[in-house]
Amino acid sequence: MAKLVYEDGRLLFTKEMKKEYKMLIPAMAPYHFEYFVTLLKSEGYNAEILKNNSFDVIHEGMKYTHNDICVPAMLVIGQFIDAVKNNGYDVHKVALVMTQTGGGCRASNYVSLIRKAFKKAGYEFIPIVSFNAVGLEKNPGFSINRSITLKLITALIAGDVMMQLYNEVIPYEVNKGDTEKAYQEVNTTLNEYFYYPDYKVFYHPTRLFKKIIKRFSEVEVDRSVLKPKVGIVGEIYVKYSPLGNNGLEEILRSEGCEVITPNIFDFFIYTFDSSIHDIDKYGGSKKVKYLYKILIRFIEFRRNKVRKQLKKYGFRVPIKFYDLRDYATGFIKRGMHVGEGWLLTAEMIELIHIGSPNIVCTQPFGCLPNHIAGKGMIKKIKEKYPISNIVAIDYDTSATEINQLNRIKLMISNARRNM
Ligand code: SF4
């Protein structure tokens, strides 16, 4: 069994553990995280996404966190503890992976919160690996090397494309099941791609993206029936995670809507851009600022290639990051980058511009930053865009689903009337 090694009181994930341990990842973005697991496997890690989503998750979360903590933290911790207790893992051979933003929000403290909860639950021997781009908490058995970084960039673009195409096609498919079939086909191809040896990752897989987009364009659709377009914005966890938002995407689809969920990659670019802003404003390393700028340019260069293909096959073309940032001007300052910050406001305005003024703004209980940038901006947006039809839904583990559903249905009926 791998030896437990500590550094400043923190249990490290060692090279020995890399060979023996399974890395558990909380479920957040279903379209993206599967590729993360594949790319980690291709780098020699044994990883798995947690799928447990019963009431026990909430129960464990409430038991091991303070009841003032924001809902995403409670659910993530609850999912980890429930999985370790009930999923039949060898508890001495698992590690947990958690993203850490390094920003001013509570998301930066999830890792220490998980450690505290694990100690309380008697699992302090389980290593917690922080997955971050800012060099926090280094572990000898895990590093984000060049190959992982490049694969991650492609995986995030791929997840965004899959999420967009699936939602853009499925409401209009003529033969039920065709979109799902196309999705499964290209999903297999993508997973194979992410398992390739790392030399391939230096090139943008233009042909692969072309194949994916073309395959979705071949699904027979009938767009003569108008369907309300509904956007989902909000805090990153409740926006993307079906566990966090009670399956919102599925609910909207079953109500006959076309769902539009903004790209997840913009959130990551937003964190790089926020660091640039802070260096300009408060000082800091010019080298770091330059590196973030280059990184954003590189990501946008790759995303432009995908935008071209989307345009060619008649799909919606996602806006460029700096244009998205401009949408928030006059509403909220760029310095407001705690939580989703100005990005949340900008995404609502983007949705209005692309013909989807119907918006569900998902707000987790206990999340102050997103109540300011989300709910707090609705009045101002309504003044400039009277057509906007935004409903803020609170996601609280003790709230009833029926209440959320009724408010969503009211927003959809307004959307139908406006159509
Ligand atoms: S953005 Fe809100 S919900 Fe997310 S970690 Fe921060 S406080 Fe919690």
Structure description:
The protein has 419 residues and is of the alpha/beta class. Helix content is 52%, strand content 11%. The protein has helices at 15-20, 30-42, 55-64, 71-86, 110-121, 146-169, 178-194, 206-217, 236-240, 248-254, 265-282, 286-312, 321-327, 341-353, 368-373, 378-384, 401-418; strands at residues 6-7, 10-11, 22-25, 46-49, 94-99, 128-131, 229-234, 258-260, 358-364, 389-395. The protein has a four-stranded parallel beta sheet with strand order 4-3-5-6. Helix 2 runs antiparallel to helix 6 (146-169), helix 6 (146-169) packs parallel to helix 12 and helix 7 (178-194) runs antiparallel to helix 8 (206-217). The longest helix is centred in the C-terminal third of the chain and has 27 residues, at 286-312. It is globular and about 65 Å long. The N and C termini lie far apart (63 Å). It binds iron/sulfur cluster. Iron/sulfur cluster binds at residues 70, 72-73, 105-107, 235, 339, 364, 367, 369-370.
